[in-house]
What does this fold into?
Amino acid sequence: MIRIKIAYALSIALVLFVLYFGTGYVFFPETQTGGFGLPVMPSKGDPILAVKGVRDIGTGLVVLTLLVFRNVRALGWTLLTLAFIPLGDMLIVLTHNGSAAAAFGIHGATAAVMVLISALFLIRPAQNGQ
It folds into this structure.
């Protein structure tokens, strides 16, 4: 039971983190662009930053919805599936001469945390000594 409580706490932190960055890309893109890890980011008025922000907000809202309804299995599988997004971001940064530190430290770490949380939700303890 403590495993699930830890997973819920980490999921809530993840949702807040993703919503914070997502709203930042939509409303204050100039404050967010430097942390992505690419050597050149779009300018302040470029709509691609808002697209990224909306993607992040949508991701956070999906996880938040599953948290509200306390669907442990669906939450675990959803987080595992959504880990593709930061993994993809990591690969984009690495293949476009971006910062390896940002690629692994921001995007890779986020994907790893999402996989860890999903494992906490999905792994079932052995029953009756099996």
The longest helix spans residues 2-27. The radius of gyration is 16 Å. Helices lie at 2-27, 29-32, 47-69, 72-82, 84-95, 100-122.
